[in-house]
Design goal:
alpha+beta; 305 residues; Beta-Lactamase; 2 domains; elongated
Amino acid sequence: MGLPTSRNRRTPGLRREEVALLAGVGVSWYTWIEQGRATNVSGEVLDAIARALRLDQTQRLYLRRLAGVGADPEPSEVRPDPRAFQPFVDNWLPNPAYVADRYWNLVAVNEAVRNLMGLDAPQNILEEFFTNEQTRKRYPLWKDDAPILVARFRSQAARYSGDPGFTALISRLRRDSPEFAELWNRHEVLEDSCGTEILHHPAFGNLSFTRTTLDFTSRIALRLTVFVPVSGTGTEEALEPLKCFPRERHTISFRVGGQRHRPISSRVEDEERLPSHACATGEPLQPHLPHPHLPLGRTPSHVPS
């Protein structure tokens, strides 16, 4: 670690003076920080101490939170493996669900998203919405939805100011879509956690959903968005045919504390369990629908167009 060797070390680990030396701070100041007596400790000093102690990312953020210092993690630059997130979206079938990254690039989608929204990974939600005429047809209230979508995106992009990926995406959208450019210049922002969506399907007409977005850990900057049918609109009945197709078995393995634990499997007989049970036990609600294009069948007479 760059420290002078000493033969008089009675216990393992670093001495207080050594931590201060490695962190580049005074011994007295480090002692006050250690004892919780220091005020206005900067994030830079805490990060230097974390490096000296060889703390990992989770431990470094925990140290910052204890000191009352901003602890937003830097997003990981490692691209996620879509296969790891496929069960999270497939388990919501027949409801549409997708996982997207911080740029709103799709990482994993289920068959309902492909069929109802015309989207697939790794497409970008904004680019498809503003530049793809076929995707635009899926939104019967496109002109009303467009400013909401841009305001939601702006509120998310503000978390990553200076990110060159956002700069490139926004420049590309402003170049390719006059509608996006005009809406972006409004500087409007909206909460992105939930809202309503109306999607148009050629066979079923307009379908009404409540959209809910949930964050994975901030470190990987991925978000799960689920579309739940609005009761009394005929949407839930329109999605019923999706339940009739063969289902595969998902197996999810995971690690805790470096130890590999037994896999969790999706089981068809468990598909009617409530989401609260899934959150408590870790068991997915429904397994995967394998066919890439699922016809939804004929138009029910009770679904408005």
